[in-house]
Amino acid sequence: MASAFVTSRAGFDGARRQVLWLAPDGRLQQELTASTVDLGRPVAVASDSAAARIVIADALYGQVLEFHPAGRAWRVVPVRDAAGAGPTALVSIAAGPRGWYLLDAGCRCVLIVDRDGRVLGREGVGELAQPTALAIDASERAFVADHGAQALRVFAPGRTMQTFTYRQLGVAEFADLRIDDATLVLATGPGARVDARRIVARAAGATR
């Protein structure tokens, strides 16, 4: 399962104008050239297979940057809702059937965004305390690691489905999450150990 894990950590080499796509243990996976775009503070990277792009969440400007798989910057996409407001504290990004899913610690919610940056909806409003990591499956379920609540929360479109405590999962914290088919792949901290769990989400309000 470890080979299927796609990390989302990002660093920035300001002198060379490159985004560094990093594994949880700090190993370099890919260099993305950002010399042609206005990049503030990259915080997370994801592979958007539907659009054949690599996407980066930029926390400083509240935007998404798209890169070609070869590493060249393609375009900058500002993220805005109907009132023109953008995210205030992006921490994670994932790609799903409807577009991009952005974890915003400012609203403590998941923003559902189309590939032109329009906010289509929100999940987890009023339910998340300190969200730190995000994964999306093919059914559009959002798996959110909530460090403040010490729980992994599962949201379906428009409703909460399930909650797993960190204690139930046998972890102290999450460094990252990813979905591999029907399996949730976890990078757990400290040490960013990679583990795989098959979690079956149930009805709204159910626990493990």
Sheet with most strands: strand arrangement? 12-13-14-15-19
CATH C-level category: Mainly Beta
Q: Report, as a whole number of angstroms, the end-to-end distance.
A: 23 Å
Please provide the count of β strands: 19
CATH superfamily: TolB, C-terminal domain
Strand content is over 45%
User: What is the CATH topology classification name?
Assistant: Neuraminidase
Helix/strand order, N-terminal first: EEEEEEEEEEEEEEEHEEEE
Structural class: mainly beta
Descriptors:
208 residues; single chain; four-stranded antiparallel sheet; Neuraminidase; five-stranded mixed sheet; 1 helix; disordered C terminus; mainly beta
Question: What do you see in this structure?
Answer:
By secondary structure, this protein is mainly beta. It has a single domain, classed as Neuraminidase, CATH 2.120.10.30. Helices cover 2% and strands 52% of the residues. The protein contains 1 helix and 19 strands. It has one helix at residues 166-169; strands at residues 9-13, 18-22, 28-33, 42-48, 53-58, 63-67, 73-78, 90-96, 99-104, 109-113, 119-123, 131-136, 142-146, 151-156, 159-165, 173-180, 183-189, 193-197, 206-207. A hairpin with a 5-residue loop joins β10 (109-113) and β11. The protein is globular. It starts with 8 loop residues before the first strand and ends with a strand. The model is unreliable at 1-7 and 203-208 (pLDDT under 50).
Please render the helix and strand layout as text.
Blueprint: E1 9-13, E2 18-22, E3 28-33, E4 42-48, E5 53-58, E6 63-67, E7 73-78, E8 90-96, E9 99-104, E10 109-113, E11 119-123, E12 131-136, E13 142-146, E14 151-156, E15 159-165, H1 166-169, E16 173-180, E17 183-189, E18 193-197, E19 206-207
Parallel strand pairs: 15-19
Antiparallel strand pairs: 1-2, 2-3, 4-5, 5-6, 6-7, 8-9, 9-10, 10-11, 12-13, 13-14, 14-15, 16-17, 17-18
